[in-house]
Amino acid sequence: MKRYFFILFLLLSFAFSISAQEKEARKVDEFESVNCDDYLARMDNFQIELSNDPTAKGYILIYEGKIPKNSKGKFIFVFPHSGEAKSYKKTMIRRMAFRKYDRQRIVFIEAGFREKLTVEFWLVPAGAEPPKPTPTLKKIKYRKGEPIDFCGDDSV
């Protein structure tokens, strides 16, 4: 009889530990500077992760920061234009519409500032706490001018 209670206790402990693990937000991807094709592939991978759990929400945190610029054949990092993070968000939303992903399952957060423009993809199961932004800078400088569309109109 004690043996059965012990086995039952182990099974319940295992079930609760699995349940507790599923209730935590999980960072799926994080990147700073990638080309447009890599960026869009990461977006698709995130959507696949999200589709594997129909009750989860996706959180995309975008930190404004320096962006790469091609200067004489090599990349350097320059201060962004004001609204650069919004340009990334616009590209993602356009990509979601093209792929017919459920926009209601994605939450975008303008997460503050970091040294380089950074994007984080988070998967948040039902009942889990959403991720909190972790900026590393209080503010950044901006260049004059308007941000360009990150991937252009043909990104989808």
Estimated structural class: alpha+beta
Oligomer: single chain
Radius of gyration: 20 Å
Mean pLDDT over the full residue set: 81
Head-to-tail CA distance between termini: 63 Å
Helix and strand string, N-terminal first? HEHEEHEE
User: What percentage of residues falls in helices of 4 or more residues?
Assistant: 25-40%
Going by CATH, the architecture would be: 2-Layer Sandwich
Briefly note the CATH topology name.
60s Ribosomal Protein L30, Chain: A
Give the strand tally: 5
- What is the CATH C-level name? Alpha Beta
**Any idea what the shape is?**
elongated
- Count of helical stretches: 3
The total number of structural domains is 1
Tell me what you see in this structure:
The chain has 156 residues and is α+β, with helices and mostly antiparallel strands. It has one domain (25-156): 60s Ribosomal Protein L30, Chain: A. Helix content is 34%, strand content 28%. It contains three helices and five strands; from the N terminus they run αβαββαββ. Strands 1, 2, 3, 4 and 5 form a five-stranded mixed β-sheet that branches. The longest helix is centred in the first third of the chain and has 21 residues, at 2-22. The protein starts with a helix and ends in a 32-residue tail after the last strand. The relative contact order is 0.23. The mean pLDDT is 81.
List key phrases describing it:
156 residues, alpha+beta, 3 helices, elongated
Task: Please sum up the structure shown.
By secondary structure, the protein is α+β, with helices and mostly antiparallel strands. The chain has helices at 2-22, 36-51, 84-99, and strands spanning 26-31, 57-71, 74-78, 106-116, 118-124.
